[in-house]
Design a protein that fits this description.
- The protein is built from 7 helices and 3 strands; from the N terminus they run H-H-E-H-H-E-E-H-H-H.
- The protein has 2 domains: 4-85, Arc Repressor Mutant, subunit A; 91-123.
- 59% of the residues lie in helices and 11% in strands.
């Protein structure tokens, strides 16, 4: 018989994680910031197909959930930089596991391993 409490103690934190990271854009934003602080336009260029409005919305939500820190510099014009907080950086294992799974899945489905240089051109 399934232990309902054990199941609940497993499912509830997963649901909490999904509530914070849900949507199409949050994980790609975190992935881009994993490589260092970025300005808004840099993020916009590095994340294909994201609109400025969506990027702004998602950055605000990530900031509210303390995964991203927004720093405003007193320059002319004012410049704003985004970077991962310690909590955001703690997602490294999750992101790496997702990247590895994605590469394996793509190789399984397409028959092409994106880790091989000669097959990268077709992706």
């Amino acid at each position: 018989m399934l232990d309902k409490e054990a199941c609940k103690s497993y499912v509830v934190p997963i649901r909490d994680t999904l509530n914070v990271l849900s949507g199409k854009w949050k994980l790609p934003i975190i992935g881009a910031l994993y490589f260092g602080a970025r300005r808004f336009k840099e993020l916009e260029r590095e994340i294909p197909q994201i609109t400025p409005r969506m990027l702004s919305k998602e950055l605000k939500e990530l900031e509210l959930n303390e995964l991203v820190r927004r720093t405003v510099y007193n320059t002319t014009p004012v410049s704003v930089e985004y970077e991962l907080t310690e909590s955001g950086r703690s997602l490294e294992k999750v992101l790496n596991a997702m990247k590895d799974w994605g590469l394996d899945h793509r190789a399984r489905v397409t028959g092409k391993d994106p880790r091989k240089k000669e097959e990268m051109a077709g992706i």
